[in-house]
Automatic annotation (TrEMBL):
GO molecular function: cullin family protein binding; ubiquitin conjugating enzyme binding; ubiquitin-like protein binding
A cellular component annotation (GO) from this entry: ubiquitin ligase complex
Its job: Neddylation of cullins play an essential role in the regulation of SCF-type complexes activity.
Domain DCUN1: 4-190
InterPro entries: DCN-prot, DCN1-like_PONY, PONY_dom
Name this polypeptide is given: Defective in cullin neddylation protein
One protein family per Pfam: Cullin_binding
GO biological processes: protein neddylation
Signal peptide: none
Length: 200
């Protein structure tokens, strides 16, 4: 396969893996992204983990690493950096972003529970939707006061909501099939926006 050589990919993995286990942990990831000149809090690190279909937060197994690099057709730092940078535009495609967004729920969720804890959910939304949803600040305020944990359904429906409803909430139909939590958020947000207008 052009661009991919198993031997070189294994050598690259071994450079960053933990000493006694066939996986790259947080220390290895810090060194890997350092060599790639990519900040750990850059969203592209999540896109890379999604591209590798990693199953555990801040870990990459040998199989995940080799399978991912094989699919990307790269096996060295220079070509890997270029391929990772090429992942950025995927977040502007709705289908790819939805797949990525839903993958993030399972990636960040504590595997012992079906729901995501509130603080984690807020951090994920802040990173994924900060440039996509105008009223994210209001949503985070509202959810802080009205939820203890976030279900996959709520997490998924919220994305649909941000794509379907105008920023001024015109046309929002509270008789439609939106969950009660979304209805309550719209009422909350409308009130907050009205208050802001009065302050101007």
């Amino acid at each position: 396969m052009p661009g991919y050589r198993e031997k070189d990919a294994i050598s690259l993995f071994n450079k960053y893996k933990e000493e006694d286990v066939d996986k790259i942990g947080l220390d290895g990831l810090e060194r890997l992204y350092g060599d790639l000149s990519i900040s750990l809090d850059d969203i592209v690190t999540l896109l890379f983990a999604w591209r590798l279909n990693t199953g555990t937060l801040c870990e990459i197994t040998k199989d995940e690493f080799l399978s991912g690099l094989r699919g990307m057709r790269v096996c060295d730092i220079r070509s890997l950096k270029s391929s990772i940078e090429n992942l950025r535009p995927l977040i502007y495609d709705q289908k790819n972003f939805r797949d990525f967004y839903l993958w993030c729920f399972d990636y960040f969720r504590d595997s012992r529970y079906k729901t995501m804890d509130l603080e984690t959910a807020k951090a994920v939304w802040a990173q994924l939707l900060k440039e996509q949803y105008t009223h994210l600040d209001l949503w985070l305020e509202f959810i802080e006061a009205n939820a203890c944990a976030i279900s996959r359904d709520t997490y998924s429906v919220f994305l649909n909501f941000t794509w379907s409803v105008a920023d001024d909430f015109s046309g929002y139909d509270d008789t439609a099939a939106w969950p009660v939590l979304i209805d309550e958020f719209v009422e909350y947000a409308r009130g907050k926006l009205a208050e802001r207008e009065q302050e101007i």
